[in-house]
């Protein structure tokens, strides 16, 4: 996770769990063909469900929805 992404409220969620969440999110949007304009709100909802917190760091959402660079 990039250094700029800092979890501010739920210290019980590890980097590993966020990484798993990101990979699950990517698979979900790919398999369900979720339109890109819906990625941000869906990623936000996913983080809220996993952390149990209403606050979601927008940088975390951006990291989850970020596309991998093509070589």
Overall residue-averaged pLDDT value: 82
Percent range for helical residues?
40-55%
Q: How many distinct beta strands?
A: 0
Query: Which word captures the global form?
Result: globular
Low-confidence stretches: 1-10
Helix tally?
A: 3
What integer value in Å does the Rg equal?
12 Å
- Class from secondary-structure proportions: mainly alpha
The largest sheet is: none
Describe the structure.
The structure is a single chain. With 71 residues, the protein is mainly α. The chain has one domain. 54% of the residues lie in helices and 0% in strands. The chain contains three helices and no strands. It is globular and about 30 Å long.
Topology, pairings included?
Blueprint (H helix, E strand, L loop, with lengths): L14 H17 L7 H13 L6 H8 L6
Helix pairs in contact: 2-3
Quick recap of the structure?
The protein is an all-alpha fold and 71 residues long. The chain is built from three helices and no strands.
């Amino acid at each position: 996770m990039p250094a700029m992404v800092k979890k501010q409220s739920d210290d019980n969620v590890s980097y590993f769990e966020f990484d798993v969440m990101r990979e699950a999110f990517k698979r979900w949007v790919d398999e369900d063909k979720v339109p890109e304009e819906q990625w941000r709100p869906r990623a936000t909802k996913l983080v809220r469900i996993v952390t149990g917190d209403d606050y979601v760091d927008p940088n975390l959402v951006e990291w989850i929805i970020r596309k991998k660079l093509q070589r």
